[in-house]
Specification:
The complex is a heteropentamer, with 1 copy of chain A (about 325 residues), 2 copies of chain B (about 260 residues), 1 copy of chain D (about 260 residues) and 1 copy of chain E (about 270 residues).
Chain A lengths: L15 E6 L9 H8 L2 H4 L2 E6 L7 H7 L4 E5 H9 L4 E6 L6 E6 L14 E4 L6 H9 L9 E4 L5 H4 L5 E5 L3 H7 L7 E5 H4 L6 E6 H6 L1 H20 L1 H10 L8 H15 L14 H13 L14 H10 L1
Parallel strand pairs in A: 1-2, 1-3, 6-7
Antiparallel strand pairs in A: 3-10, 4-10, 5-8, 5-9
Helix pairs in contact in A: 1-10, 1-11, 10-11, 10-12, 10-14, 11-12
Chain B lengths: L4 E13 L5 E13 L3 E5 L6 H8 L7 E6 L4 H6 L3 E4 L11 H11 L4 H14 L15 H14 L4 E5 L7 H18 L2 E6 L2 H7 L2 E6 L4 E7 L14 H14 L5
Parallel strand pairs in B: 3-7, 3-8, 5-6, 6-7
Antiparallel strand pairs in B: 1-2, 1-4, 8-9
Helix pairs in contact in B: 3-4, 3-5, 4-5, 7-8
Chain E lengths: L1 H32 L5 H4 L3 H10 L1 H35 L1 H16 L2 H12 L2 H26 L3 H9 L4 H36 L7 H10 L5 H29 L13
Helix pairs in contact in E: 3-11, 4-5, 4-7, 4-9, 4-11, 6-7, 7-9, 9-11, 10-11
The chains are: A alpha/beta (about 325), B alpha/beta (about 260), D mainly alpha (about 260), E mainly alpha (about 270).
The complex binds adenosine-5'-triphosphate (ATP) (2 copies), the ligand Cc1ncc(C[n+]2csc(CCO)c2C)c(N)n1 and magnesium ion (MG) (2 copies).
One adenosine-5'-triphosphate sits at the interface of chains C and B.
Pfam families (chains B, C): ABC_tran (PF00005)
Protein name (chains B, C): NitT/TauT family transport system ATP-binding protein
InterPro entries (chains B, C): AAA+_ATPase, ABC_transporter-like_ATP-bd, ABC_transporter-like_CS, ABC_transporter_ATP-bind, P-loop_NTPase
Chain lengths: ~325, ~260, ~260, ~260, ~270
Amino acid sequence: GCGGTKGTGDSAKGPAKVRVQLKWLPSAQFMGFYYAKEKGYYAAEGLDVELINGGPDLVSTNQVSVGAAEFGIANLYSVLPFIEKGHPVVEIGQIFQKSSFLLVSKKEKGINSPQDLAGKKVGAWLGSAEFPVYALLDKYGIDKDKDLTIVKQDNTMDALLNGSLDAASAHTYNEYLVLLKAGLRPEDINVIDLEQEGSGMLEDCLIVNSEWLAENKDIAVKFMRATMKGWAEACKDPEAATEIVWKYLDAASNNKEHQLNFAKEIAKLVAPSGANAAQMLYLDEAQIKATQDLALKYKVIKKVPDKVYDKQLWEEAAKSLQ
Amino acid sequence: MSTAYKLQIEDVSMVYRGQGGEDITALKNVNLNIRKSEFISLLGPSGCGKTTLLRLIADLLQPTSGKIAIGGLSPRAARKARQYGMVFQSPVLYEWRTIRENICLPLEIMNKTREERKNISDEMLEMVGLSKFAECYPFQLSGGMQQRVGIARALAINPEILLMDEPFSALDEFTRNKLQEDLLRIWSNTKKTVIFVTHNISEAIFLSDRVCVLTPHPGILSAVIDIDLPRPRVDDIRDTPEFAALLSKIRKCFAGMNE
Amino acid sequence: MSTAYKLQIEDVSMVYRGQGGEDITALKNVNLNIRKSEFISLLGPSGCGKTTLLRLIADLLQPTSGKIAIGGLSPRAARKARQYGMVFQSPVLYEWRTIRENICLPLEIMNKTREERKNISDEMLEMVGLSKFAECYPFQLSGGMQQRVGIARALAINPEILLMDEPFSALDEFTRNKLQEDLLRIWSNTKKTVIFVTHNISEAIFLSDRVCVLTPHPGILSAVIDIDLPRPRVDDIRDTPEFAALLSKIRKCFAGMNE
Amino acid sequence: MLKRNNLANQLIALLFGLAVILFWQAGGFHVLLRLRPYQLPLPNEIFEAFIDNFDVMMVHTQYTMTEAVAGIFLGSGMGFLFAVFTAVVPRWGGGGLKLVTAINAIPMIAMAPIMNNWFGMDMGSKIAVVTMFTMAPMTINAYYGLTHLRPFALDLMISYAAEPSAVFWQLRLPNCLPHVFTAMKINTTVGLMAAIVSEFFVSHHGIGFELSTVLKLSQMSLGWAYIVDAAVCGILLYSIVSVVERYAIKWHASQR
Amino acid sequence: MKRWQSSRHIATLAWVAVMIVLWESGAWFLQNVLHDNMQVQKLPYFHQVMSTFFTHFGSLFADAMLTLSRAATGFVCGAAAGIAVAIVMRFSRFIGEMIFPYLIVLRMLPVLALAPIIYSIVKSQDAARIVLAAFITFFPVAVNMYSGLKSVDRDKLDLIYSYAASKRETYCKLMIPSSLPDLFAGLKIAAPSAITAAILVEMFGADAGIGIKILNSLYYGASSALMFWASVLTAALLGIFGYAVIYFLEKMLMPWQKADGKEEAH
Ligand SMILES: Nc1ncnc2c1ncn2[C@@H]1O[C@H](COP(=O)(O)OP(=O)(O)OP(=O)(O)O)[C@@H](O)[C@H]1O
Ligand SMILES: Nc1ncnc2c1ncn2[C@@H]1O[C@H](COP(=O)(O)OP(=O)(O)OP(=O)(O)O)[C@@H](O)[C@H]1O
Ligand SMILES: Cc1ncc(C[n+]2csc(CCO)c2C)c(N)n1
Ligand SMILES: [Mg+2]
Ligand SMILES: [Mg+2]
């Protein structure tokens, strides 16, 4: 019994308590959840949802696995090794429908195509988001251990800006915007878009503790439904969503304009083909397979686990939303 | 018969390990029996092993060979039974305690009530003439005053065996004489066994029933001299011919030794 | 005329601040002139301010009021000119230095060569009878032995003014007598000025040209007594009637004081 | 007699450690702390990971140790000099002492990004972080040792009108040595820790670099191999300090 | 005495003034001589940091209090454990020698690496926070206290030994008071570290706190650089505050200590 029986309640006795482990600092990256909570979608389903902030050293998958939260947000490719090792987690929804991953460099470094990465110092978020980079390098026959230096990148873009990194990992929704705010113009930046290069791997997905799920399927469906609605509405109106997200942020160390741009980029990733609630969190099996294959190829996992995702919840939720 | 003695020291030797690993024999084959309520002085030149012997009795050191028994008990058992009161050669005050608190330390350990502690410490402070300094910290006292605190602390607990290591050496003649008389009064009232280390021959004679003379390198108990002066002894006794005779007798024990 | 004196103490008072902020007057209006090469003893009961006076002379304390001059210099200037050698009431040995190294400490500071240091320390160790313990650390020595190291250290540098705070109090009579004679010999050879604190009246008489009697609470210089015994003085002088007369004269100074 | 006692104690300590490892291997901790197998690897798995990755691990270990040792020397040295300065001119040093402790109060994780900006992403920035955080323990302890002298010890020196340098070399320095060693013991751990933590940020080598990556990827055996590795490094540094201490201050009460 | 005290304050002010001047000129140098485009990140002008600090004072203060309370809990637990373990180790030479090496092993475990496992053991963010902060505080306290306990004067020990005082009394009346100065030296190191620890733990996610401010301002780049520095400044002030608390506690608890750093008469 180390699973997550804690935190659930009999629906007869007031709302069921559910905890969601976010993967990072509160931001528009999770606007769908904030939206659903703020607009009462969860309450309407009889849920009392607690959104737990993450941080750079927190492994959200781990938190879900140990039962510190029932649900969690994580990069799909980093969830895979946990599932392979037997952690009781399973994916139940894919939040980002495509990869936001970029490799950026200053124009003067002359990295005009992926081949030019050879011999350079390239930043990667080791431990959480390095595999897309490896996939790209592999595609162009660049040996990550010999042909260039992979540097562990922190959560700033300073190393790229001060020139100690030649190229750095970036998400469309934050790091790229940070570069622009630091005074670089788009034409000063060379961008390698991993989605276009076909090396993109699936990022933010919704996972659940499978032991808890086995006993609380109904709650999970309710949660899915409210969450999908939240995301759909948030993507339709990023301005409104930003206002809601703002309530969860520390005003002193954040910037509303940045959050709005952030939110707009997120909307592009979550709802690339229109914000229809029934299509949110869609599990595209082909894409999941592509991510699994890349993970297998780059030894993130030794073999594809039996059960990475559970589509049933999404189907039930989507059905009731139509 | 052996139980007639309060303290039996049998063939006790003590060897310290020196810096280079060589042995320093501080005491060699010391034999001494002390009766209950006896006042014994240990007399001897600097470095002859007086402190060492006192520490052996007090269970602060273990002899290299030989045996010590205190009324049938081992020194450890006697210590655990809280039979000892000790005055160290240096005052050994706890610098975080005021003078009164230093005197009360053993009383606290022996679970005296607050009131008893107050009364006893008042009395002791009075006796050593430091009432005015009760609330001072040790660093505010002169050397002799600190030593008196050490004496007051040892007397406060009224122990069965009083071990005193040159308690009066830092004191002037008058203070010293007064405290000697106080000590004798307390001793005759309470019938303690006292082992008193000193290098002052006249002090040893004035106070003791017997004087044990130690000679150094290695420390050997070279003579035990009975002091058959009448008691109670008052200051005038120092001017008697008997006293002078004892003085020169003991001086002779040391003669020739000093080169 | 005033320059005839090596040391002039004019109306010196010293007030310590007590724990509760109240004042403790240790010395009050002390006046004393000391000639060059004079041997002066400060005599007085425990806590009367002897150590305080010595520390004032040595520039280790500043008087609350009054003035001290050393051959026209301030105590600070005299200290800087390294005129002082001091024996403290407690041995004050550096525990990280062996006995020899402790004795050599001032010699190092005064830039003596290695060879001089060796010779002087050998000689001093011999004098205080600790040659065998040269390479021991202080914790391996008895109380009296430690005190002798402190004496050896002060004499090693052959200072112009020797300030000695109860240097012999932890020593037995024989060692004490020997060291007293050594001290007098050194003094008469080198013509130092010596200020010697003691609570032992006969010691003060035996050694000094003049004895200064201090009485306590507050410390007042109540008498200065000339000791006009012939020199060189040998042990036998203690048995002369002149000696006895001085003894009782000084005792009288204290009489009545002790209550 | 004492010697044999020590040996027996050490043996028992060793046996105690062995017992703990056996208990761990038998799954005792997993039962006790209700852990899943993948949350805490077994000793044999850690050992295997260690053997399998030995060469790579040693490269990273060397890198981190270099940073730590360099930083510890720099930081302790500067901290000591600062303590000396404070002891010599307390009026001016006192305020500085507060500033040094203020540095100690800056969180390492805030310092690492700043240092990366100043000194680049290689060893330099990590050494700078270690230096900063080993300064205060040394300053505080050394200052204490330099100024808390036995009664009259300073008076003796003053009576000789000893040069300040003599007071320092003959009195203050030996008096503060035991405290310097206490500080060095603290600094071995603080220093290694600072090196590892600063490698959690921009870096491309070192135990911290590997550890942060490996653990997030749930490679627990290798992660623990690095944890054990770091512990061994720490003990190594600590033991060196202890051995030097034993010879340097054999006169001190704590060594008797 | 009074004069001396106030001159000491003046010296502290002088230090601060010198540091500020150095800081300002450093920033100026980076900006105008080196033309460093990272100047704001490397060393922003002190007056700009201060202005940010005061503009957001309310928010910084609230976060500071939050972090401080977490640090205080961790500090108290860690210090208590450190003292207790040091005592146990000195109490029984056997236990001391047995566990000391393992204590070192334990301490050498990198905290950030241990975090996941601690989270899986205690399963509560708050508890994990306290455990981690306590873990960091623990070692300096334990080491200093232990070395203080080992340095108690032989004579003082003999005295209480001669009274056959119980071990408990020996510790209460001798060992602990006599090691207080060493303990406080350890606490002075540990108090600021506890703040660091609390911030470190915020890297595992928290609703608010100085660490969260630092993270946010790093994550969103140059525009938040001033906020980053203001937060770091706040953190440092917290550390100084912790140090000061210990300092005054020390002065209060140890009236027998003569004024430390007494000036020499050279
Ligand atoms: N640091 C201090 N603070 C407060 N009072 C002090 C201090 N030092 C000495 N005194 C007080 O000053 C008085 C004289 O002390 P001093 O040490 O000079 O005496 P003394 O004549 O040397 O005595 P003894 O023979 O016992 O050594 C004493 O009453 C003592 O309590
Ligand atoms: N811890 C020790 N280690 C080595 N030798 C020691 C130790 N303690 C004492 N000694 C030696 O033992 C001998 C006797 O010392 P002790 O302290 O018993 O002398 P004492 O008779 O008390 O002398 P004093 O009158 O000078 O105090 C001395 O030679 C001394 O050097
Ligand atoms: C130390 C560190 N690791 C990863 C990222 C990259 N990143 C930024 S937000 C986010 C979460 C979801 O996208 C991720 C992985 C970072 N900035 N800093
Ligand atoms: Mg002795
Ligand atoms: Mg005195």
